[in-house]
Design goal:
By secondary structure, this protein is of the alpha/beta class. The chain contains 21 helices and 14 strands. Among the domains are: 131 residues, Rossmann fold, CATH 3.40.50.2300; 148 residues, 3-Layer(aba) Sandwich (Rossmann fold), CATH 3.40.50.300; 43 residues, Orthogonal Bundle (Arc Repressor Mutant, subunit A), CATH 1.10.10. α3 links the parallel β3 and β4. The longest helix has 20 residues. The protein is globular and about 70 Å long. The relative contact order is 0.07.
């Protein structure tokens, strides 16, 4: 028989939760005031798990959680909340909650979580001083979709350790924001956080940027220069687009992860560094390893913990929240009296597929706030809506086997934007985008049946698996 304590000020909710469980396996106790929880646990000494509501009248569940952990209460605490908040999810997991669940509950998930908690292998952690959360930092993760809440929980969990993190997802999804949130909730928060885009620098420049160089190491090296690893000592470094790093630089990065030492370019001295590495990529590292462009040993060193950030089109429930967030942000910056977005404009925002993800949404809202002459954003304030409204009329009966006109109608309205943003890679960008879109649509049409999808596409299953991995199709 397992003993569960439910701490909730609503007795009906507490009883409803208890009724979900087998009475032959579980016995429940109830508290409507969390301030008594620590004393109750010490008196009973037989509680196997706790369901603790975040929103309590006299003292918040998060404060009670902190009090319990500081009192060395070694019982798994599952936080429950009726209000979805990424800030609360991060803080709960960072403070040592076993899990963070939001109402309405998925009943089976709740039962499974309690089952696992009751079998939790308790080991008393070494309690370290925890920094207070930076409210501005956690607020950067905006969203209430289940995917974002899970990411927030992961941020809270992994921020307590120094493990290397690999964040992957499409461009513009907010990978650097996740990295910053991890840093700002960690014990390193008062030390530097430095970001390096590995795709933006040539091999020799990237090596110098990361590890520094000695005077005279190469032409133009007139002075000794400290690299980002030395500058970020005791802090964190964010390596964006890690898949574009050369094999030589990868081998040097591997040494940093293994030995915590670097050598400046042109130097012989080994310099010890204490830096947490957070890497990110929008490419499939599995595919890169197959092609021989990424080291297998480095992959496993970086991927101690991995976080997948889904594209905005897969979490459409966050579009309205993000749009309002950006309106408030840019209205303050530009000192404009813009108070929101009209219903029609918001409906169009929610309809648009956002291939550029959150970054594209942010840029469009920024432009709209600059251009608007109203106190709320209207459809005409968004340049992107001219592209949405130029619908592609397709008459398949007269197209026969030539689909050129279809693609011309799609490409013509967005070509100027592609020219300005694709940096001479339009062909590669469109070829990859079309292949990914075609495979994704076919998989969706056939209910993820890879056999039927490969048959209809006319490719082998091995090729299909390869493309699924390459494009991170889930």
């Amino acid at each position: 028989m397992k003993n569960i304590l439910i701490v909730d000020d609503d007795p009906e909710i507490s009883r409803s939760l208890a009724n979900l469980f087998d009475p032959d396996r579980y016995r429940f106790a109830f508290l409507d005031d969390g301030q008594r929880m620590v004393e109750f646990i010490r008196e009973r000494k037989d509680i196997d798990a706790i369901l603790l509501d975040v929103n309590l009248p006299t003292m918040s569940g998060l404060d009670i959680l902190k009090k319990a952990k500081l009192s060395d209460i070694d019982v798994p605490i599952i936080m429950i909340s009726g209000f979805i908040s990424t800030e609360n999810a991060i803080e709960a997991m960072r403070e040592g909650a076993y899990e963070y669940l939001t109402k309405p509950f998925e009943i089976q998930k709740l039962i499974d979580t309690v089952n696992k908690a009751c079998g939790y292998n308790r080991s008393r952690p070494v309690l370290e001083p925890k920094p207070e959360p930076d409210a501005a930092a956690v607020d950067e993760i905006v969203g209430k979709s289940p995917e974002i809440v899970e990411i927030a929980k992961l941020v809270g969990q992994v921020s307590k350790s120094d493990a290397a993190i690999l964040i992957f997802g499409e461009s513009g999804t907010g990978k650097e924001l996740i990295a910053r949130a991890i840093h700002r909730n960690s014990r390193r928060r008062n030390k530097p956080f430095l970001s390096v885009n590995c795709a933006a620098l040539a091999e020799t420049l990237l090596e110098s940027e990361l590890f520094g160089h000695e005077k005279g190491a190469f032409t133009g090296a007139y002075f000794k220069r400290l690299g980002k690893f030395e500058q970020a000592n005791q802090g964190s470094i964010f390596l964006d687009e890690i898949a574009d790093m050369s094999m030589l630089t990868q081998s040097k990065l591997l040494r940093v992860l293994q030995e915590k030492k670097i050598e400046r370019v042109g130097g012989n001295e080994s310099i010890e560094v204490d830096v947490r590495v957070i890497a990110a990529t929008n490419k499939s590292l599995v595919q890169c390893m197959k092609e021989g462009s990424f080291r297998v040993d480095l992959f496993y060193r970086l991927k101690v913990v991995s976080i997948y950030v889904p594209p905005l089109r897969e979490r459409k429930g966050d579009i309205s929240l993000l749009a309002e967030h950006f309106v408030n942000k840019f209205a303050r910056q530009l000192n404009k009296d813009v108070r929101g977005i009209s219903q029609k404009a918001m409906a169009m925002l929610n309809k648009y597929p956002w291939p550029g993800n959150v970054r594209e949404l942010e840029n469009n809202v920024h432009t709209a706030v600059v251009m608007t002459k109203s106190d709320s954003l209207q459809p005409e304030d968004f340049p992107i809506f001219s592209e949405v409204e130029s619908k592609v009329e397709i008459d398949l009966d007269h197209m026969q086997d030539d689909y050129t006109e279809i693609f011309k109608k799609i490409i013509d309205p967005v070509l100027p934007k592609l020219i300005n943003s694709s940096e001479g890679k339009i062909y590669y960008f469109l070829e990859s985008a079309l292949e990914k879109a075609l495979i994704s649509s076919c998989l969706k049409h056939f209910g993820s049946n890879q056999v039927k999808t490969s048959e209809i596409l006319g490719i082998s299953r091995n090729t299909l698996r390869d493309r699924i991995s390459k494009y991170n199709i889930y």
